Batch of 4 targets.
Target 1
Amino acid sequence: MIVGIIGTGTMGTILIDAFIASEALRAEQLIITNRSLQKARVIANKHKRIKVASENIEVIRKANLLFICVKPKELFHVFQEMQSIIKPEQCVVTITSPLSETQLDYLVKCSTARIIPSITNRALSGVSLFTFGKSCTNEWRKKLYQLFEKVSTPIEIDKSNTRIAADITSCGPAFISFLLQKFIQAAVDVGGMNEVQTMKLTEEMIIGFAELLKKNHYNLVTLQNKVCVKGGITGEGIRVLENGVGTMFEEMFKATNAKFVEDVQFLETQIGKEF
């Protein structure tokens, strides 16, 4: 199987690195391109035998499975290029949440799917979110699951849950990273610790935290209860957090959904059809 990747930005590169690191794909099975070809060539220098195509059309023609890893504003142009040359036996996957399965089926006449990866997939971990177009054959569904099982835990979701699920699994690492950086800065400012050492302590704490969950020693609730002894220091910290968080996360989810709706409307304008 030849796998094509159009767009070698952050997520496109993560998929390439993860597929090769997990041995889900060999480098020679990949053909890639990018608007800035130099970015694609950097990847090819890292993974010898990856083929770099000079234009999208070459990737579309040669790949059995196509991953479209471009920003929403570039999507419609890519689909316009492939409409006249895509074959029914091919499969097209977008990693962009605002493009729906119905729109995919409308734009290209082949098997289609939307798969939203996460940066955690680079560590061959975390979740990849699956929704399928009606046109997607059982054979392609099986192949996609087998491919992503090597780099993640594939989970099929209801399309109505796309945005909130992606906020948790795909955007979540950035949100948590931001909060931890604030946590570290406060420890430095209040406690006077060295920032480098504080960051190291925090990173090791998070790794250990994840291992406790991974090995099923605790879940999020039981872990908090175990550490938070009644009347103790941790309890005082939790009290402050409870008073300070307020509706912060609700507002965050509302903001990401508003941006999602904006992108959906932009794509509908480009396609010229409401779905």
Target 2
Amino acid sequence: MTDSRPAAANANKDSGERSSQQTSQQNSQQTTHFGYREVATEEKASLVGEVFTSVANRYDVMNDLMSAGIHRLWKRFTIEISAVRAGHKVLDLAGGTGDLAAKFSQLVGPEGEVILSDINAAMLSTGRDRQTDDGNCGNIHYVQGDAQYLPFPDNYFDCITIGFGLRNVTDKNLALRAMNRVLKPGGRLLVLEFSKPTNPLLSQIYDTYSFKILPKIGKLVTQDEDSYRYLAESIRMHPDQETLKAMLEDAGFANCEYHNMTGGIVAVHKGIKL
């Protein structure tokens, strides 16, 4: 997969590479979770890649079915608190089919820039095709890349979003530090992600839906039950709201806060780079 990056992609590619490589070497003998399974750290990215390659062509349909369309409201709220305006530079990580990127494209206008980035080639290709078909091709550029090792210069973006992608990143702390590096001072990070329901009864209902019903929907629509079982497991392994807030603070973000939506099934975390 090739990219169509503007100046951001052509500058400072090597920033942070040595430290990232050292971290990778240190982690090479370690394990991490892939859903409820323990796997070698270096294997997780490829396993996650297989999941999204499998579901890429039905991803939007499944999002609507899984959330009864409510995911559109979650994303709309994220856009509303982004403070993105004309001329801004926005990075949409794990951008998938480009729901957020399309909205940001309208907000930043012809003088602005939106980079839709995804580690998975199939998802990125699907997103590029969809946005091109919708006529969103003037200020959106596409970069296949890993959120842990962002190939962009320091202090470049006004806003970074990552929607339903952080839980799939192997080293979340490394990724958050990389996001902090490429944000401008005063820029904001928005992490939209499944989280922990705040009501015990809702939590029980959500568990039943996630593990009994969701995989069956995945099997019916995408012929892939296992991928949606992994997605349910990955949500349970993701840090809760307070833990993720602390991780943002540890990565150097200030004024960190989160907003629960749909009873805490989803939360959007916000942090500002000083």
Target 3
Amino acid sequence: MYAIIDIETTGGSYKDSKIIEIAILHFNGYEVTDKFVTLINPQRPIPWFIKKLTHIDDSMVKDAPLFEEVADKILSYTQNRIFVAHNINFDYNFVKHEFATLGISFDRKKLCTVQLSRKIIPHLPSYSLGNLCQSLGIHIDEAVRHRAEGDAQATAELTKQLLWLSQKRQIKIW
């Protein structure tokens, strides 16, 4: 069982940026069976380039819960599941760091769809989520691109195809 995660943040470094949105999709290898999606109040202004990319602004997160208020939900939604993300270290390190600031250890088995894609489909010119999905015929609605749930849904479809291709080509993923 998998927990497919995507986050949106105030910047690129988990050390000095904060999560502003998280989506966690329960995925059984074939379909999404449950989900948890929420905006998160970062308690700081969202930079203009992040607003432009995500369409998430300060007014949208001002009444959203703080990370600590959804921490238990995130723990339960990822417990006993493989943490899957596109470019895993970005999402995982942000989540792990947020828990560390609360004094909570966060340790999950990880699966990176970028690394898995490179193993299963070598020699592509780009392994970005958008380009991979385009290469595999996975539709991404541009209206939800760069939002946590939309990108998590695309990652779920990508994961489904990668798992199928790994079985078809007899490629071990672990």
Target 4
Amino acid sequence: MRPLPYDAHIHTSLSDGQNSAADCLRAAQACGLKAVAFSDPFDFQETQTGQRLKLLANLAKDSSVQVVPAVQTEIVDVGGHLTIPAAAARRFKLIMAHLSAQTQGIGRDVPVRLERLLDNIFNCLMNTVQHKEVNVLAHPLNLGRLPAPLTPSQLPISRLEELAAAMYEEEVAFELFNCAWWWYPQLSVPEFTRQFSDVVKIFSAAGVKFIVGSGARCAAGVGNMRYVRQLMQQAGLELSQLVDLTRVK
């Protein structure tokens, strides 16, 4: 497989990363990447959106690496509401939504019955992908460290197929995250890879596009996607199934 052409999941010192966006961009250039997305979480005031976008635009002027304005946002509840205001979201090219320990009904106030929890998870994700601002599910199905952890093999195939169909229809990408294994400490890495690659195959069969990211929180981690390549190989994915980050509008 040819080298992966971009890194769409990098945290900088604008949030919880160790290095500046400038240093991370230099790292991307050193790795030979064509594009990056600095997907720092939305944890700032809406009025600061312009400042962040201006910083990224200024960095891009002097670099051969394309900089795609991106932001991560938590999913608030089963209704698929987001922490980022709609007006701010419209100013970024990539809106990467994800479940968290704060997601009502999934990360907190978790129902006792498994059936109800599964309903909450899939209703939440279905509502999220139908949100007009969202175009990526970040580290999707990251359920292994939540209060009621579920492994990939516990997720009903029919519900996964329904979600995959919705993501295809709404043109929402599925992130292949280099640190996906971290979310499942109860599984060995080989077992997680086996289970998760089966999930990835369901989304691949539905025609869903994938987007790749390192999850780097320092410049040295930019472009490190060896585990993503392993997932892609096990799931039988081709580079043609990846979102072309250089053409994201």
